[in-house]
Amino acid sequence: MERHYHHVDVQYDEERRGYDHERCPLEWTEKRFDNVIQLRQQALDHARNAWSDYLFMLDTDVILHHKDTLQILMGHQKTVIGPMLNISTEGAYSNFWCGMTDEGFYKRVPEYMPIVLREKMGCFPVPMVHSAVFINLRHRNSSKLSYLPPSDYEGPVDDIIIFAHRVREAGMSMYVTNEMYFGTVQIPLDYPYTLHDEVEFFKHTKLEAMLEGPPLYVSPHVYVPPIPQDKLGLDEVYMINLLRRPERRFRMKHNLYELGIDAKIIDAVDGQELNDTYLDSLNVDMLPGYSDPYNGRALTMGEIGCFLSHYFLWQEMISKNLKRVLFFEDDVRFEPQFRHKLQKMLHEADTYIPQWELIYLGRKRLRPSEEAMIQGTNTLCWPHYSYWTLSYLLTLDGARKLIAQNPLVKMLPVDEYLPIMFNKHPEKSWKQYFSPRNLVGISAEPLLVYPTHYTGEPNYVSDTEDSSVIPLEDQLDFGFSDIKDEL
């Protein structure tokens, strides 16, 4: 590796195993802060003594994604600048502050969220940037920068706060740029978190990094033991994916591997390949009077394909006598500590609602004000009308109830069908075609998975909503004559 660089200098401490008086390895004691301050100052001094043009101070819990990060930072010609990093696509935590108190502590100000959410894009002066800090040593005023506190300093003993104080003292500002998606940063952990927690949260940081790009490669110079795989104590785990969405399959396979989940990859039924002959062979017919609640349109071929994908797996559960199965679609992202939270939720479900038949892990809440936590639990609620089938658990009894209704002859989208079956759908005219509606449905609360992208966001794709609608002449054959005038 050294042949690619002018010089490589690696230093590490083989003796240190902790700090005096720490209650756990992650606790930020005064001695730990002091050690980090000294190490950062050594790096700054080393760069100056080597006549380096630039210094990029990068923490180990940062994952950079954009290959041109250094070139972009150099191009701004700022003395101190950092690339904006996110913990997730929707989280509020990042590696910069927009406000700071007189004592040097964090202060939330209105300017912060528009930058984090990229509602405003550009390069912004800020009082603090950390975790990924680029210093232009060509600038003369960079000589005034230091991680060591001045003699009259009375603020917190904290490396990033002291450095920010030095920048202000030199009459400069730090900058952060959010013009690109640069990568992710982990929320710093402190007491009472453990090293196991650190591993789990960093695993989540890696998964979030894959949302906007390819999986991280493993260095050939570092041995990484294989991650043990299992089915989470369930009979099967299915991941449903369209063959023409290989990038989703690729990401989900890597995500599931990182989480240690042994999933069976299922080729989804593709609405683009459906035809009347095949649908007739399944006796598929549309629910009389159905029209999309938001767009007033007929069922799409993508929605038919989605329903069939789930339906065939419900049939497989019955034929193979699978007692409990977990379903994933291919456009999900996971909560931190997903496995631990799933096991805790399952324990509460089995304890308080042992007769459960369906548990949403991810959904779109449409009437949250009408939902309530299940008494005695911290992780479960009674769901009301919901959309999406991102991920859910289903029992054998639940699968039998869903199949027993013979839903192919009165089809509607699968995410409309499920709330009908636990009797929480607001459309009474649809519910009358299904009886009994006694599926025991509950939901994780908080949810354990979310969509990778929401409607209107960059890279959002829907293979159900954006597919072709059943032609009007075919709707007459499928029970749609009563809504012809509306369409």
How would you portray this structure in words?
By secondary structure, the protein is α+β, with helices and mostly antiparallel strands. The protein has two domains: 167 residues, Alpha-Beta Complex (Spore Coat Polysaccharide Biosynthesis Protein SpsA, Chain A); 248 residues, Alpha-Beta Complex (Spore Coat Polysaccharide Biosynthesis Protein SpsA, Chain A). Helices cover 29% and strands 17% of the residues. The chain contains 13 helices and 19 strands. The strands form five sheets. It has an eight-stranded mixed sheet, with helices on both faces. A five-stranded mixed sheet has the order 1-7-3-8-5, sandwiched between helices. The longest helix has 20 residues. The chain is elongated. The C terminus is likely disordered.
